[in-house]
Amino acid sequence: MSLPAFFKTIEKECTGEFKDKGSKFIAYAFPIHNESDCKQRIQQLRKEHHTAAHVCWAYVMGLSSEIVKSSDDREPAGSAGRPILGALQSVQLSFTGIAVVRYFGGKLLGVPGLIHAYGSAANEALIAANWVQKDIFYRIFVAADFQIQHEIIRLCKQNSVKFYPDMQNQNQGITFEVAPAKKDVLMAGLNSRNFTQITELGIIYE
Questions:
Q1: Which of 67, 114, 157, 159 is 20 to 30 A from 37 in CA distance terms?
Q2: 101 and 66, same structural domain?
């Protein structure tokens, strides 16, 4: 699967609120790196709002927003987690979680009312958020003696790729960070010059 050039997330935690028939829905949107981050924040919210009726949540993760999960937390199936998740997906965010705390007001809202309430609270939090774009890069090391590193440097400059001298496993060489769209061209250029000691160090985003 080819990677996108970037993904969108939020810079820091923010909140939104929605009220209906006495019930109050407080949404917390927050950036996450992994599922543990989301679980930890939800546990904190449960302690902070220990008298609340429900804490429903959803998150989206992955460089292609491919990892999703949601919870209705004892609300009717599909009435809470799914609309929260829908709010995230509608604006194409990733590495972002939203938890919505509900204080029950004494009147039932019905499933359509709950869907509207949870989705609206989540949207209010996202409206308040500062969105940021994270560019995605492959980090790759090419082993090469100092005398021939200029060939790699020239290729990186031709493709406007960030590079720097490096040492991996006692091998001298150049590490570069290349956008997904440019990776194949750069790798073809390296292979045509008979650079064979090429190691992918991972994927970064900034």
A1: 114
A2: yes
- Which segments of the chain are extended strands (E)? 6-10, 14-20, 23-31, 54-61, 67-71, 96-103, 131-143, 162-168, 171-178, 198-205
Residues 112-150: tens digit of each pLDDT = 999 999 999 999 999 999 999 999 999 999 999 999 999
Do 45 and 147 lie in one domain? The reply is no
Give the separation between CA 76 and CA 73, rounded to whole angstroms.
9
Greatest extent of the chain over all pairs of C-alpha atoms, in Å: 77
Domain assignment present for residue 92? The answer is yes
Q: Please tell me the total count of domains within the chain.
A: 2
DSSP summary character for residue 36: H
> Minimal CA–CA distance to 100: which of 169, 25, 44?
25
Q: At 129, is the secondary structure helix, strand, or coil?
A: coil
pLDDT band at 63 (very low <50, low <70, confident <90, very high): very high
pLDDT at residue 159 greater than cutoff 70 = yes
Residues 115 and 193 placed together within one structural domain of the fold: no
Segment 90-109 shows an average pLDDT of 96
Running DSSP on this structure, what letter comes out for residue 66? -
Q: Look up tokens 């923010």; give the residue.
A: 14
pLDDT for 1 beyond 90: no
**Cα distance between residue 121 and residue 130, in whole Å:** 16
Distance from C-alpha of 59 to C-alpha of 37, rounded to nearest angstrom = 10
Alpha-carbon distance of 108 to 20, in angstroms, equals: 10
